[in-house]
Amino acid sequence: MEQGTLGKRIAYHRKRLGMTQEQLAQRVGVSAQAVSKWENNLSCPDITILPELASIFGISVDELLGRTPPKEERVHEAEVIKPEEKEHILDYTIGSAARSGLWFAIYVLAIGALFLVNALGKFDVSVWTILWTSALLLGGLSMLTHRFSCFSIGLMLVGGYSLLTAFGFLSIGFRWSVLIPVFLLLWGVSLLVDYFCGRRRKQHHVRASYGGKFTQDTRCDNGHLSCELSFGSCRVPVVTPLLRSGRIETSFGDFTVDLSGCEAVQDNCPLTVETNFGSLTLLVPDRFAVTVSGKDTTAASLNQRGTPCEHPEAQILLDADLSFGSLEIKYI
Hints:
Keywords: DNA-binding, Membrane, Transmembrane, Transmembrane helix
Helix content: 25-40%
Organism: Faecousia intestinalis
Strand content: 25-35%
Pfam family, one: LiaF-TM
Distance between the termini: 26 Å
Number of strands: 9
Number of helices: 10
Largest sheet: 7 strands, mixed
Protein name: Helix-turn-helix domain-containing protein
InterPro entries: Cro/C1-type_HTH, Lambda_DNA-bd_dom_sf, LiaF_TM, PAS
Number of domains: 3
C-alpha cells in the first residue's frame, strides 16, 4: 500500500472493504464527487469526518493520516474494533447479579413455586400472568438491591400488586388507568434524578444508569465472530478477511453491527443473533445475501431494508432469537 497521501489511503481502504465511492459517500453524508476529489488529492475531507472514516475502515485516525502506530498499538485485520461510546446513553440494567445468573435462578424458583401454589390451591391463574408479574416484581427487586431508584420501586409495586390481585390475596382494586400513570410518574422522577446527578458527575456525557454499565465483549478469532453487547448504544465494525461464523448477543440497548469490513464471507455462513429488550441493526454489504434460516420471536420484529445484488458472492444463514426487541437487516 502506498501511504504518500491521505487520498490514496482513503482509496486503498475503500477498495479493501469492497465499497464504491457512492457507498462511502452515503455512509459519511457527502457526495460521490467529494469522495472522488479526496482520492485524487483535489481536496481533503473535513476534520469532523476523519473519525467517521477511520471507524468505517476499522483503523485509527492516526493511521488514516499516515502515522504508523507502535507495534503494540497496531490493529490487526481480523479483530473487531472497540466502538466509541455515544453521548446521552441510557442504560437499563437489572443489576450485575442478574447477568451472572443469580436473579435468573431466583426467577425460575419463584415461577416454579407459583405454579405449584396455583395448582394445589386451584386458583386458576394463567401462565402468562404468573410469568410477567413475577418478572416485574423480581426485576424491580434486583435493581433495588443494587441501587435505589424510583423506577425499581415502580416495577416492584406494579408486579407485586398484580400478582397478589391475580391470586386473590389483595381485595383493593386499582384500574390500569391508575396504575400506568403512577408507574410512569415514578419512572420519570427516577430518570430526572439520574439525569441531574449524572450532569454533576460528568460534564460531557450523561448516563442514566440503574446499577450497571455499558458492556462490550467482541472478538473475531480466525473468522469466527463473537459479539456481546448490553446496556447502552454503540456501533461495532467487524474487520476480517473471511467471516466463517458468528454469534451476536445484545440486550437492553440500541446497537449496530457493521459487516462492511468483511472482505469475504464463507458461503452458507451460520450467524446466530439473540436480541432481548432492545434493538439491533445489522449492516450487510449488498454483495452478500442474508437468508433467515430460523426465527423465534416474542413480542419482537425482524425487518429488512434494501436488497442484495442480483448475484451475491455468498449467503449468510441467520438464526434469530428475538424477545421484546427488534432486528433490522440493512443492505449497504
